[in-house]
Amino acid sequence: xxxxxxxxxxxxxxxxxxxxxxxxxxxxxxxxxxxxxxxxxxxxxxxxxxxxxxxxxxxxxxxxxxxxxxxxxxxxxxxxxxxxxxxxxxxxxxxxxxxxxxxxxxxxxxxxxxxxxxxxxxxxxxxxxxxxxxxxxxxxxxxxxxxxx
Length: 149
Hints:
By secondary structure, this protein is of the alpha+beta class. The chain has helices at residues 33-40, 66-75, and strands spanning 2-8, 16-22, 45-51, 81-84, 102-107, 112-117, 128-133. The chain is built from 2 helices and 7 strands, in the order ββαβαββββ.
């Protein structure tokens, strides 16, 4: 599984890890559950979002794929997990079914969340916007923030 991780720290709250992930369809052994487990265990509050190539009827796809069945069965046994899937397809397949392959897996995220698909790129994979409604918190001064590259 390919992944990029961003960690966000706000005050004394536990860090939030946002992970962009891609599960390639040609993985030996099928869906990379061991990699997914490592990503889920990388912090107390985790969001994994991206092209997981896991179609399932529970996630608004017209059919269930091998990856989808494996991921669904794995996640349903874990407390604190929520899967967000858009209501419209994220992958346009000109020869077959349009499916939802791009998902967000939320682990212990206490905010209301939603996602939506944008029809704005000339690609067979459509971009998905994930929105977390965290409420508002004041930003007092730009001097409080710094960049550490």
